[in-house]
UniProtKB/TrEMBL annotation:
Gene3D superfamilies, alphabetized: 2.60.120.200
Protein name: Laminin subunit alpha-1
Highest taxon listed in the record's lineage: Eukaryota
UniProt KW keywords: Disulfide bond
Pfam family, one: Laminin_G_1
Disulfide-bond pairs as recorded: 244-271, 843-870, 1026-1053
UniProt KW Ribonucleoprotein keyword: no
Organism: Lygus hesperus (Western plant bug)
InterPro entries membership: ConA-like_dom_sf, Laminin_G, Neurexin-related_CASP
Domain Laminin G: start-end pairs: 77-271, 283-463, 468-683, 695-870, 875-1053
Name of the coding gene: Lama1_4
């Protein structure tokens, strides 16, 4: 390390330490002032303004110091020759859940040691991690993102460096993870021209398919050289950093090795500056939050009467700073900016005098554009002129108020800011934010400048060829990309964040824009009509993820289990096609499975011609029947993957009002039905839920049905019109059945949901089937109309295209109709058919036959005790009215390992969520709400009960009638409890505790019966509210698969009336 490097290193660390100490002292002053008496309020306001400005100044000082430390290019190693002692942690600024990870580092080793842990990023909330380590002199990339261990080892042997100053002893290591697939490249940093090493393929491997979301967040830390808790899957045995680490990049952003968060004291030191790849230093990549500051080159001749700037740029930014030069005088400057995509050239002469010129065209199209801007003062005519050349446009002009000679900006001692401004800079005019994109061939005042020679941050030499993986949407735009067909074994996915509950996320389609296909006759002739019917879309509907797909033979639908995805958090979506099977995974959890209709094979797409839209659609686009929502998206979409390959946003066919390369807004318009962020002062009470007087609920008990007897036997045998409304979240269920007349037992007319689609089956001498080409298990009301006229039957649902089929003129069906299911006995139908049919789980109303209403609800007495009432508005979940409980399993053993997860919504402060206990009260384990706290308790059988308590922001948080998520893990002697995003609560046993709980009793959910032991519960009060997404030991079990249900309304969860 040379003297300059050591000085800059020490200066940067001193600045950080000094600034952080000053901030702490100043904050302590503020804290003391907050508690002064009210009599000092006026004085406090003055102090507060002063302190606030000082705090802001100190924060800027800290940020600049971090930037300085980040620029230090010295390599890092451990002190001493005996082995590794250096362990450092880093806190990258932009960590967030993602389905893609890239790590790049350069490394060399001069000792004979064979192992080294070079990079380790663990999640603080899950078992996820990624790491790069050297094991027996070979680089190993290892990860776990929820689907078990993934690892790949590169075959290249890492040689010992005899001299670290020689470039050939340094290695470049690049690891890339795309969902569950890992790639690892290892090669020397400096590769001879034409060497096969430069383009050698990566070593590749994969973990479990379909699981690829890496759950990290802003609080997580990168470890270099070691870890506080080394993961058992890491094989490197040497502790501390072994060898020399030079560059380290995570997801395209550098991690400054000397801008660390923590380190082992007196353990790390600098080694030589590592080898550098040969890159194009005439072009520069700006990350969107950076800047470069260079000063005027005083070695050349300076002419104050002439000043020029020229550069090339490419960007998708609408508004950004390209360049500003400013001398010592306030208000005198020269700037180039982007405003709404147009280039603005502005000169400030001090006071009110200025010159501004703008292009007509927009240039934020991601293509290279050249700018030449100059100003010239004619001393003879006393006239100032400006010229702006951009592309083919030329603009010139003069200031409205002609400046005199002394008003001309003096750039002889100027500072030039390119791409952005450092924090805390003063005496500069208001300018747009930092630039995101590439610049090259920068000339200022006819001299070439290297942006790496001055102070810089968020900028690198050469332009990246990596795809841009993120885009921000503001509710008034869209982006169109090349589209992708989905063949036999294909998949697609992306990550999104929004606070909307209804929005269009993605649509792939051939059609939609009025008149679009008419202008492309050649394409229209080549594409068959069936292909043009292909589409697939992803929408948010009432917070639920809905996927619609059609391969030309009818639509299928996949829907998420949860409906809380408009929560401003990042969520991953993955849709996989395996033959005819379709799977939807949300946040790596398999939420839905369905099959394509007969004859469907491939979802066709328009390819390079476009048709893949994200975030919205162009004006005039017709999407009838293709999407659940047309509401433009507000938020962020990133990590778009098709068939395990990254697809960026940087080659759009067209886009409007989208910030390509940047995150979108974190919140959209506030929802009126959501509580504010203020701490709750009471439970959000729901007095009572109203019911729909005409609707009947089916499926909460076995053999749930309504029987309708028609007065005329032949009412449904010839011509008729039958109408009803239905609503369900379940894919399968009998809507109605009309058995044949006596003697015609095999005959029947049936309507049922199969895989979410309505199917009509008429069984007579032959079997006739027709199926609606859409899916309807979305929890919304749908109108079914079945008409028979002569030999034609028509099925209509809502406003979609009707399905028509030929039928016999007369059908041998009787005058008894079963709605929603079948009775236990007495139905004249084949037994094999009865065993196959599932009862309907949802609500049915408004049954009309030949315009005559047939009541499903009888007011005097209820002859159908197996049906219930329907709530007007519902969502997914099961309702526990306060006297209900479910038995998950009659003989449940806790053992030494139990993982459970559930979501609840309630207006009460107390209630049993889960309990299992032997009759004598132990062993036992329980989860409950008690006075606003979430409590998990247990007794392993030794009569030494324990408990973990999670206290929330307020005792009324649990009863705010919003969904809350509980995760609990019991593993041997450790218990963890987490509610929502709060910090985990822990319990660790002492040495005397047992670690295995042997139970053979029922596991109750939502309450316990009177005869059951209370176990470790502190209350017997049954839960009142909604529960959903119950996962125990990794198994998500539907309520219909529980051992038994007692008064649980499991088909839906009521929403409060608005």
């Amino acid at each position: 390390m040379d003297a300059d490097g050591e000085m800059s290193l020490n200066t940067a660390r001193d600045l950080i330490d000094e600034a952080e100490a000053s901030t702490k002292q100043t904050q302590e002053v503020v804290d003391r002032m907050v508690f002064t008496s009210k009599k000092q309020d006026q004085q406090f306001e003055k102090w507060n303004d002063t302190i606030a400005s000082k705090l802001e100044e100190l924060r800027n000082k800290i940020t600049r110091a971090h930037h300085n430390a980040n620029r230090i290019r010295l390599s890092m190693t451990s002190i001493g020759d005996s082995g590794g002692t250096c362990v450092r942690t880093y806190k990258p600024a932009n960590l967030e859940p993602s389905t893609m990870t890239t790590i790049v580092l350069t490394y060399a080793i001069s000792s004979q040691l064979r192992d080294a842990l070079l990079f380790y990023l663990p999640s603080s909330s899950t078992d996820d991690f990624v790491a790069i380590e050297m094991v027996n002199r070979k680089m190993r990339f290892v990860w776990n993102v929820g689907g078990g261990l993934g690892e790949v080892t590169h075959p290249l042997h890492i040689q010992t460096a005899g001299d670290l100053n020689k470039d050939q002893h340094w290695y470049r290591v690049e690891a890339e993870r795309v969902s569950n697939i890992g790639n690892l490249w290892v090669r020397p940093v400096v590769v001879p021209e034409g060497s096969s090493l430069r383009d050698s393929p990566p070593a590749t491997n994969a973990s479990l398919a379909g699981v690829g979301r890496f759950d990290v967040g802003p609080g997580d830390r990168v470890w270099v050289g070691g870890a506080d808790r080394r993961h058992p899957h890491l094989l490197s045995t040497q502790s501390g950093l072994v060898g020399c680490l030079h560059h380290l990049h995570l997801n395209g952003r550098p991690i400054g090795l000397w801008d660390f968060s923590t380190q082992n004291p007196h353990s790390c030191t600098a080694c030589v500056e590592g080898a550098q790849e040969v890159v194009d230093e005439s072009s520069y990549s700006f990350a969107g939050d950076g800047y470069s500051v260079v000063t005027h080159d005083s070695s050349g001749t300076y002419n104050k009467y002439l000043f020029s700037v020229s550069l090339k740029f490419k960007t998708f930014d609408s508004n950004a700073l390209l360049f500003i030069g400013s001398g010592n005088s306030t208000g005198k400057y020269v700037s180039l900016t982007l405003k709404n995509g147009r280039v603005i050239f502005r000169i400030g002469y001090g006071g009110d005098s200025s010159l501004e010129m703008s292009t007509t065209e927009k240039y934020n199209n991601g293509k290279w554009t050249r700018i030449e801007a100059s100003r010239y003062f004619d001393r003879k005519k006393k006239l100032e002129k400006g010229v702006l050349k951009v592309g083919n446009e030329v603009r010139d002009g003069a200031p409205t108020i002609p400046p005199n000679q002394d008003s001309i900006p003096d750039m002889s001692v100027a500072r030039y800011y390119v791409g952005g401004i450092p924090p805390g800079e003063k005496n500069l005019p208001p300018v747009p934010g930092p630039f995101l994109g590439c610049m090259s061939e920068i000339q200022i005042d006819q001299g070439a400048y290297s942006l790496l020679k001055g102070k810089y941050w968020g900028m690198q030499a050469s332009c990246s060829s990596k795809p841009i993986g993120v885009a921000g949407f503001y509710g008034n735009g869209f982006i169109e990309l090349p589209s992708h067909s989905l063949k036999k074994k294909d998949n697609f996915g992306f990550v999104f964040s929004t606070s909307q509950r209804d929005a269009l996320l993605m649509l792939s389609t051939f059609e939609g824009l009025n008149g679009q296909l008419d202008d492309k006759e050649e394409m229209t002739n080549l594409i068959e009509q069936e292909d043009r019917l292909s589409y697939y879309s992803v929408s948010l509907r009432r917070g639920q993820i809905d996927v619609r797909l059609n391969a030309g033979r009818g639509e299928v639908r996949l829907a998420s289990v949860s409906s809380e995805y408009g929560d401003s958090r990042y969520h991953s979506i993955n849709v996989a096609k395996i033959g005819k099977r379709l799977e939807l995974r949300v946040d790596d959890v398999l939420d839905a499975v369905t099959n394509l209709p007969e004859g469907s094979t491939t979802f066709k797409a328009n390819g390079e011609s476009g048709g893949l839209f994200f975030g919205g659609l162009p004006t005039g686009f017709n999407t009838t029947g293709r999407t659940f929502s047309n509401v433009p998206f507000v938020g962020t979409i990133k990590d778009v993957i098709f068939n395990d390959r990254i697809h960026g946003f940087d080659e759009p066919l067209r886009f409007e009002e989208v910030t390509i390369g940047r995150l979108g807004p974190t919140t959209s318009q506030p929802r009126t039905n959501e509580p504010s962020n203020s701490i709750a002062t009471g439970c959000r009470k729901i007095t009572s839920y109203t019911v729909d007087p005409r609707a009947v609920s089916f499926g909460d008990v076995p053999f749930s049905h309504v029987q309708v007897n028609f007065r005329k036997r032949a009412v449904l045998q010839k011509n008729f019109t039958l109408e009803l409304d239905f609503r369900t979240f379940y894919q399968n269920g009998l809507i109605f059945m009309i058995p044949g007349v006596r003697g015609k037992q095999p005959h029947y007319l049936m309507a049922a949901l199969r895989n979410g689609r309505v199917q009509i089956v008429l069984k007579g001498r032959r079997k006739i089937e027709t199926t609606a080409q859409a899916v309807f298990n979305d929890g919304m009301w749908h109108k079914l109309v079945l008409e028979k006229e002569d030999r034609k039957m028509t099925l209509r649902i809502d406003s979609i295209d009707p399905e028509k089929t030929k039928t016999p003129k007369k059908m041998n069906v009787g005058n008894v109709m079963y709605i929603g299911g079948l009775p236990e006995t007495g139905v004249l139908l084949p037994q094999n058919l009865i065993h196959k049919l599932e009862g309907f789980k949802g609500c049915i109303r408004a049954l009309r036959v030949n315009d005559r209403e047939e009541p499903l609800v009888v007011e005097q007495t209820n002859p159908y005790p197996k049906v219930g009432q329907c709530f007007p508005q519902v969502e997914r979940g099961s309702y526990f009215p306060g006297d209900a409980y479910a038995i998950y399993k009659n003989k449940f053993n806790v053992g030494s390992l139990l993982e459970l997860e559930l979501e609840f919504r309630t207006s009460e402060m107390n209630g049993v969520l889960l309990s299992v206990s032997e009759p004598q009260g132990y062993p036992a384990l329980s989860l409950e709400l008690n006075n606003g706290k979430v409590i998990m308790s247990g007794d392993m059988g030794d009569r030494r009960p324990f408990r973990v308590v999670q206290e929330l922001d307020s005792e009324f948080t649990v009863c705010d009638n919003r969904w809350h998520r509980i995760q609990a893990h019991y593993i041997n002697d450790e218990l963890t409890l987490r509610v929502d995003d709060h910090d985990q609560s822990y319990w660790l046993s002492d040495n005397g505790h047992l670690t295995v709980a042997t139970t053979k009793s029922p596991l109750y959910i939502g309450g316990i019966p009177e005869h059951a032991s209370i176990g470790t519960l502190e209350t017997r009060e049954n839960f009142k509210g909604c529960i959903r997404n119950v996962i125990i030991s990794g198994e998500r079990r539907d309520w219909t698969a529980m051992a038994s249900l007692h008064n649980v309304l499991h088909t839906s969860c009521p929403l409060p009336s608005s």
